[in-house]
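REQUEST FORM: STRUCTURE PREDICTION
Request ID: SP-0412
Submitted by: Lab K.M.
Chain count: 1
Length (residues): 346
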Amino acid sequence: MGRHARPRERGPRALLGGGALRVPRRIAMVAVTLTAVTFGSPLVAATAEPKPSLNELKNQVERHYEEIESLTEQFNGQRERLKQARRSAELANKTLEKSHADLEQKRLKAGQYAQDAYMLGGIGSSLALAMSGDPDGYLNRAATTYALQMQQGEEVARIAKAMDVAERAKAGAKAREAEVNKLVSDLSTQRDKIRKLVAKTESTLFRRALSQAGNTGGRATKIDIPIPGDGKAAEATKWALTQQLKPYVWGAAGPSSFDCSGLVMWAYQKVGISLPHYTGDQWTAGTHVSRQDLRAGDLVFFYSDLHHVGIYIGGGMMVHAPRTGDVVRVVPLGNRPFVGGVRIAD
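STATUS: Completed
RESULT:
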């Protein structure tokens, strides 16, 4: 390295200093003042809003999770009501169809009775009686026809009433179905909004945690991340995080080394849940959840043959035992070939 030339003096000292260039004291003082105003600290310091702490962010995430749970149950309840409304609409339609068929049949019979009555009494009852060789027989037939007509009229009236009831039932069922559909749509919209809010808060939480740990990738660093929740899934996640930097060893399940499914098994054993030491069986050990619904403690699986598993911690991050030569560490899910998530516990 060559010698460094001494930098020329600048700023207020150059204005005040010796040498060929000299300026009056008043001008120098003005220059000092201007320099301080231009380049120095502001006269009134801006008050920056304090950032929330990691624990405050964690509490925010927990509150959002509680909102999601509440909305999800409302969603499930409305979905059940929707099923009932659809069954009611289907039943009303069947009743309506049956009423139409019965009514048509009654109408045909009524028409036949009316025709018979006309044939018997169409020329006038007095004349028909006078011309009849059997007045008693005629009267019996007339009475029978009249009774049948009256009976048929009552049946038609009953069917018409039933048809009206069925029509109103059908309209009510359709209105209920439309109402429930709207409620389900509204709840889904709310749930999506909260999901986005959770994702944003989680992202801030874990980005801050990673930043404070100085982890920018490359060499593994132990990261202290506050995990939202106090259920078994969250507790298992916390246990898994205590094993950071322990080496990957094929077939190992702790306490000094782990493979991927061994870490999962060990962490859940700590909260009283037994899981097999095999990714294929762990895949079927709980409820499947989508990537957007992942929560701390959910198992995340990769590759079509499910040969790798980690424990989701939130914010698009997981803790896992990667491979031979590596250690248990926190990493983003990234572009790994994600297959699905499994919820073992709440």
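NOTES: Residues 106 and 305 are 66 Å apart (CA to CA).
Reviewed by: T.R.
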